[in-house]
Design a protein that fits this description.
The structure is a homodimer. Chain A is built from five helices and five strands. In chain A, α1 runs parallel beside α5. In chain A, β3, α4 and β4 form a beta-alpha-beta unit. The first copy, chain A, has one domain: Cytidine Deaminase, domain 2. Chain A is an alpha/beta fold. A five-stranded mixed β-sheet of chain A has the order 2-1-3-4-5. In chain A, about 45% of the residues lie in helices and about 20% in strands. Chains A, B: It catalyses: adenosine(34) in tRNA + H2O + H(+) = inosine(34) in tRNA + NH4(+). Chains A, B: Catalyzes the deamination of adenosine to inosine at the wobble position 34 of tRNA(Arg2). Chains A, B: Pfam families: dCMP_cyt_deam_1. Chains A, B: One of its GO terms (molecular function) is tRNA-specific adenosine-34 deaminase activity.
Chain lengths: ~170, ~170
């Protein structure tokens, strides 16, 4: 079982996930970041690098979970907590189930691909052999702003390109 | 769109996935194997190496998809077919959605963790932005036998160990 976190700790770790999300944004990736925590320390970090590596599996959560497994030399992260800026997709929800992470904190909901409340909830489905405690909406405004400003910028650049070509 | 496969081709590629599953068994891993195919050629292969690397994300499908993405320099595998010996879990079903693979063939159902028919069906759920055509039961007996004999052996060894310790 993971250590109980204070509200200050939760905010601190979500700020670290947001820091990772900004690292994704810097390199032109959709800004999503994640950290995995154990005993009050970050044991895994990751940000979305799908476009850079051209690999569909390289979401923030997968990279953070892989780093955490390496850090504790175990595929079982039964004492860990995962913080991610956006609601996990089916792949990342599945990675949370597979690594037995018992606590998940996320910022914004993802109505199009999220499977921790938006399109069903894989993490609380008792048909699987693992369930996680979930808390959503942590530093919601910052997570949302980061994504919205990123996509606003993408649309602006696309329009600009179109105009310069027309 | 992927090329249409003949029944002979489907069997050939599932045999390759079974070959990968046996590679997992040789090193003591649960025998699950996968290949990703494009234009009638294998562009990605993988077998479960969770225990060896102690990484919860290293399922056969994830490794095969990563290799396939690298082979075609794209995270979008829109012309690919995936063959796997066991029904994909939520993580691997999600990786199939994320990589836009339009055709999936699998051998045995996994009633405890499969999400392509057993516990819902993530690959045909129209709430996601991608669906895949699915064919199950391909070389079913061989896929099942491989898994069942593996777990029989695990139980036998466990009993033997217990007896030698008692």
């Amino acid at each position: 079982m993971p250590e109980k976190l204070t509200e200050e700790q939760k905010e601190f770790f979500m700020r670290e996930a947001l820091y990772e999300a900004r690292n994704a944004k810097i390199i032109g990736e959709v800004p999503i970041g994640c950290v995995v925590v154990q005993n009050g320390e970050i044991i895994g970090r990751g940000h979305n690098i799908r476009e850079h590596v051209q690999d569909a599996t390289l979401h923030a959560e997968i990279l953070a979970i892989q780093e955490a497994c390496a850090a504790v030399h175990s595929w079982r992260l039964v004492d860990a907590q995962l913080f991610v800026t956006l609601e996990p997709c089916p792949m990342c929800s599945g990675a949370i189930i597979n690594s037995r992470i018992p606590e998940v904190y996320f910022g914004a909901f993802d109505p199009k691909a999220g499977t921790v409340g938006s399109i069903g909830n894989l993490l609380t489905d008792e048909r699987f052999n693992h369930q996680a405690k979930v808390e959503s909406g942590l530093l919601l405004d910052e997570a949302k702003d980061l994504l919205q400003s990123f996509f606003r910028e993408v649309r602006r650049k696309r329009k600009e390109k179109k105009r310069s070509q027309g």
